[in-house]
Design brief:
alpha+beta, single chain, 8-stranded mixed beta sheet
Amino acid sequence: MKQVERWLGDAGLTPHAQNRLGVCRELGVSEEMLWPKVVQNRVKTGADREIMHSYPYRSACPSTVWRELIEGAGKEIFLAGYTNYFFWTQVPHFADTVQRKVAAGCRVRFLVGDPDSEVTRQREAIEDVALSVSSRIRMTLDCLDRLGAREGVETRFSAPMDAMSHVSLSVFRFDGDALVTPHLATAVGHDSPLLHLRRHGDDGMFDRFIGHGEELWERASPRAVYIRK
């Protein structure tokens, strides 16, 4: 009891988490009431407050997160992965969702790498997997072709000067949320880490990464969408 009195009597003392929990339980009060600074320190108020969650692997991010962000976007969906092919394989009814979003007035953009570029060939040699980078890009382009020429669905190839920057960082925007994957040296996309960002103000983490994607988009080459008959 004397130890508890010492903790409570000295504002400069902060007991370990387990001890704090025990005291709060015995006294029937919240931790915030007894040690407000500890609780305040848990709240993100600095430069990292826009980081909602981090994953050591993109594949560790639940598919429900992708689905909820896509479904929740009403104005802007910007998918700036180098291949983007996994959306059709991992997000249920993705093509139908895209069509529905476009019909509702949402702007949908796809930025992909050039399947015939030298950077693509170099990346294929680095990854050395059966489903090559160029194959994944062509799968995406084929799926986009199947969507048809719908107003609001835009597709561009990143410029040759930006290919290395594009293949090294994937940015996926859903209105004020973004999922960002910095690609590790030899890892494929699903084995690279992922950050879930949410915009809270100007020039934060969200704006920095989205600005990168927009810069690539501005220099990218538009791709006409083929209408299947």
